[in-house]
Amino acid sequence: MTIILDPGASLAHDIADPGPDAGELAGRKIAIRIDMLWRSWDWVSEIWAEALRAEGAEVTFWRSCGRTGEEGEQADREYGALLAQSDMAIVGLGNCGSCTSWTIADALTAAATGIPTIAVATAHFEGLANNLAKRGGRSGLRLHVLPYPLDILPKEQVHDIARKHYRSFLRNFGVRSGLAEQSAA
User: Fold this and answer.
1) How far, in Å, CA of 123 to CA of 126, rounded?
2) Which residues, listed in sequence order, are joined to residue 31 by a DSSP beta bridge?
3) Which of 95, 94, 78 is nearest to 31 (CA)?
4) What angle do CA 82, 109, 66 make, to 5 degrees?
5) I need a labelling partner for 121 at 20 to 30 A (CA). Which of 74, 92, 107, 145 fits?
6) Whole-Å CA distances, 72 to 77, 83, 102, 175
7) Per-residue pLDDT at 50 exceeds 70
8) CA distance 174 to 13
9) Domain boundaries, the chain
10) What's the topology of domain 29-181?
11) Could you tell me which residue ranges the UGSC-like domain spans (predicted)?
């Protein structure tokens, strides 16, 4: 007897839905998960946080570090506590194999709480991010893609990229606001 396996088959428990839209920003608590590697993600997220605050959101940053052993257990507790106090989560940056794995793992954790969640990766790691989300049982996980390479660019150029991507990021996240609905200039 020959059995043919279909590597393209989807998981029976896959969640293809992206989860709830972010909706209105005013009065909402937004967790932004950053990491210890990518200064470019610090720069993008600081621009986006400033814009989110201008729309009335409260933004809290959490930096992912030390993800194994006792330090990793503490990080998991801290991240869980942050998510419990947040209305939505922005998780980045997928810009290498390992950090894309952690970005998607943390985004899946956030999405599992039921809050609107979006992961952020660079174009070079978009495929990996989508595959990891699917393998994690949530192929519909929202993903915003930034250009690659990003981290080698000067801060001013990364800030410009962040500003240019802000409206499309809001749309990907399901934000309902006048700014999100405007097309990019």
Assistant:
1) 5
2) 60, 89
3) 78
4) 70
5) 74
6) 9, 16, 12, 32
7) yes
8) 24
9) 29-181
10) Rossmann fold (3.40.50)
11) 4-171
Cα angle value 49/52/53 (rounded, 5°): 85
Residues 6+ apart with CB under 8 A from 73: none
pLDDT tens digits for 97-137?
A: 999 999 999 999 999 999 999 999 999 999 999 999 999 99
CA atoms of 74 and 175, how far apart (whole Å): 32
Instruction: Report how far residue 181's alpha carbon sits from residue 183's, in angstroms, rounded to the nearest whole number.
Output: 6
Of 84, 110, 95, 96, the C-alpha closest to 43 is 95
Report the SS3 class of residue 17.
coil
Task: For residue 121, give both structure tokens.
Answer: 């990766």
- Contacts of 8-15 with CB under 8 Å at 24 or more apart are 10/134, 10/139, 11/134, 11/137, 13/137, 14/134, 14/137, 14/138, 14/139, 15/137, 15/138, 15/139, 15/140
